[in-house]
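Possible regression after last week's pipeline update?

I re-ran a chain I had predicted before the update to compare outputs. Posting the input and the new output here so someone can diff against the archived version. Not blocking, just want to make sure nothing changed silently.
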Amino acid sequence: MIVTLTANPSIDRTVELGGTLERGSVLRARASSDDPGGKGVNVSRALVAAGTATLAVIPAATSDPLLAALHAHNVPYSAIPIPGPVRTNITIAEPDGTTTKINEAGSPLDSDAAAALIQAISAESADWIVLCGSLPPGLPANWYAPIVASARRAGRRVAVDTSEEPLLALAENFPESAPDLLKPNSDELGQLTGTDGRSLEDAARGGDFWPAASAAHKLVARGVSRVLVTLGAAGALLVDDRQAWFAAAPPISPRSTVGAGDCALAGYLIAAQFGADGPGCLQSAVAYGSAAAALPGTTIPGPGDIDLSSVSVEPLGTLDPTGSTTPAHELDRSTNAVSSTFATGSKEDS
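New output (post-update):
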């Protein structure tokens, strides 16, 4: 069972344009859709599509449209009642894959609702607790830190995917609040390590993954067990305390990048549930993220959309505590390959 916590969920409204977005113009939509959203909700949706047991913990009134949408997508959930409505986030998608997002702040959460959310995830017997997304008004920036610390003391594996102030506040409490898995993109990795995130991604696009790997290793040195860095069209890399691997993204025709990082995290977790090693988890993450980017809006890829064979994982090299590197030795492909059952979801999770 993988439990996701989304403190600031949303209804994600996607509007697809037939041409380029022009400010100040009257534009007609080619298509539009509404989906249940928020980073943790997207992770749970991808897990459900893969046949992996999950529970989405969210704050929402019993009459909120989000709950009906989750039910329609067959996503199990535990909702903590709040008086305000779940926010609506708007994505404007252009034909070339460019997306513009307008995110609302969300309904405020009081201390009782915040405590109930923590109790809800603590009550579940979970293989992973996944803390995702921004925080709504009413919660302090460091809200995630004690949750991670408490869960890890209880022997739970924790993954975190957040940004801006909540991410920086979490890092201020490393190693106590360091999760088992942290999933930053290049900008977030730059914020955490004092580097230029754009330059990290640009280097990766040029085939040099070492700047991003070295930055990620700084977080491992501070207590994070593994860092999964998504690098947009360049692919992704995975760093632990001994080694770094990279996987280039397969060629796709991008339609929307919204939710692609969430699906990459889900792909990692799906592989981890099947006992995959680091390279196998990275392969699955890139396959899921790429598949999501090729779909419109916040459409979640299903097993038929996943092509693991299109993603090749390569070792970068070994790392030591000082950050110096040793040339990689060729890894045994038979142990790194991900079984196709990860994509079909033929194994049931506890």
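Follow-up from reviewer: compared with the archived run. Residues 327-350 have pLDDT under 50 and may be disordered. Marking as no regression found.
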